[in-house]
Amino acid sequence: MALSRQAVEAISKQVESYREFLVDFTAELVRIPTVNPYSGDASARRETPGQQRMARQLEQMGAKVETVQVPDDVFVRSQVVGPAPRDYTNRYNVVGRWTLGKGGRSVLLNCHMDTVGTAGYQGAPFSGEVLDGRIWGRGSTDSKGNLVVGLVAIEALRHAGLPLDADLILESVVDEECNGSGGGTLANRLAGIQANGCICLDGTDLYPCIGSNGVVTAAVDVYGKAGHAASGAVNAIDKAVMVKLALDKMVERRRAITPPQNMNLGIFRSGTLPAIVPDHARLEYNISYALTEAQAAKDAGLGWSAMLVRQEFESIVQSIAKVDPWMAEHPPTVSWIKDLYPFQTSLDEPIVKAAQLGYRAAGVREKQPAPMGAWFDGAHISIYAGIHTVGMGAGVMATAHTSCEYVQIDDLVANAKAVALAMYAFLSEEL
Ligand SMILES: [Zn+2]
Predict the structure, then answer these.
(1) For the chain, which domains are there?
(2) What is the pLDDT of residues 309-323, one digit of tens each?
(3) pTM as predicted
(4) Separation of 76 CA from ligand 1 center, angstroms?
(5) Span from the CA of 143 to the centroid of ligand 1 (angstroms)
(6) 142 C-alpha to center of ligand 1: Å?
(7) How many angstroms separate the alpha carbon of residue 146 from the centre of ligand 1?
């Protein structure tokens, strides 16, 4: 199936006419700091100013606009293991809706407004400077350029003069970054926002992204006894090292499976002064897990989760504790900070075919649909809400979360064409 030449030309021409808006509005959003409050930046506020600007823009574009406040207990309500407590005071999603013709099949565009922090950023993080065919600054690649791609794709579709009975939804969400675990996106699912298909714009490298690994975060608290070494104190660091060495074997094992799954010790915290024997140490691990592992857990009646990985982790900690007399009496405790499931959308799904068709028709060099390693909000839309989801992003992977972020203007334009064409293909049921 191919798109008609007339449709491709009409949509592409429309997108080209929004090129200046695409650049200017991306730069404007970069100049509005929306650093995630959990970024570690002392100056970080909230996404609010960016969301206010976005709401105004959507209204100008004739959308029906609503805001969705993220409830503080969003993870409890949705029964997803997520970071808690998490402060969502005055942090809300902005949702725009348009009806084309008589309305009908619907597509949801999802992207996030928050960015990572700016510590170590070289130059002015919020310059939004346009130079060398690029837009520079924190959030340009991840993911404000993509957010504006969504707006342009919708405008192009609305003004291309093609008959279409459909509904379009764009959601600009909060709290994707900095361990946010998709709290914003999840809140929209709890609010019942549904669609027949979703294009998640938070991505890079212009290809149909059909899924992601899961990721689970473990915290291990290891206990000692404070005091002077001569008076029977027990050093929690010594005990934590034993736990770490036992878990190293699991790290090796996970690196050896196909496809390899990363397990990273990211935090090892203990101690106050050299003269004091510490009575507590904490280790935190991020463990990525594969679709097959979630499937195995589900088959075992444990739900679509990292339950089997978690059981292995806990049993390793328990076994090492058993062989150490102190730890046998004062066992380390394992807690789970988050368990974010993996997802994969079948190549046969119309939304995936539409994305492929969109890239082809937009003249983007063909890349096969593939999942990405990192977790992203698309998982909640796919698994929690059951909406078939594909990622289409124009970001530059190598610059996301780095000290010098930019996005290529030509990539944004190409992605806007591809997204608009994909939506058209999906909505007109040319698939
Ligand atoms: Zn992102």
Answers:
(1) 5-212+343-427 (3.40.630.10), 214-340 (3.30.70.360)
(2) 999 999 999 999 999
(3) 0.94
(4) 24
(5) 5
(6) 5
(7) 9
